[in-house]
Write a structure and sequence with these properties.
mainly alpha
Length: 161
């Protein structure tokens, strides 16, 4: 150190407060904290898929029956979704499509929305609160309702799980 110059007073952690790495360290911590929620959702999804992959929903007694199916004898739009996830986890795409084609189609959609959310958080940009144009949301709702109706009609038995 040059004569007559004093060292900067120590900051938190005993390092001088003017340490060059601090802003970068803070940015890295802030970035990691922003990704905490998307990471937690991803971890929960991986855990759920891993559990369904390990515990076969095709065997009786492992999972409860769909309440709508129990009460009405009709399949809801989600009936067969766990068996679909189980089939996909084991690489049986044809079986998965046969069990619930809507669930198979929803997986890329959910992945898209998760990636959009995680990217916005990583870049510290605002997360869109509006999923999409209202017409697209109504079209999705109509598709789900139509799927629900058709899979329970005699000519739509190919959609039944």
């Amino acid at each position: 150190m040059a004569p007559g110059r004093r060292a900067a007073p120590p900051g938190p952690g005993g390092r001088p407060s003017g340490h060059q790495g601090e802003p970068r360290d803070r940015a890295a911590v802030a970035g990691a904290l922003r990704l905490l929620r998307p990471g937690a959702v991803l971890a929960a999804a991986v855990a759920a898929v891993s559990y369904v992959a390990a515990v076969d929903p095709n065997e009786d007694g492992h999972y409860p029956t769909c309440p709508f199916l129990s009460v009405t004898g009709l399949q809801c739009p989600g009936c067969g979704s766990m068996r679909t996830v189980h089939a996909l986890a084991h690489g049986r795409i044809d079986d998965a499509v046969g069990l619930n084609v809507l669930a198979v189609a929803a997986i890329p959609l959910m992945a898209f929305f998760w990636l959009r959310w995680a990217r916005a958080r990583a870049l510290d940009r605002p997360v869109r609160t509006k999923a999409s144009h209202p017409a697209l949301i109504w079209a999705l709702f109509g598709t789900i309702m139509l799927f629900w109706l058709v899979r329970n009609l005699p000519f739509g038995s190919f959609l039944a799980a």
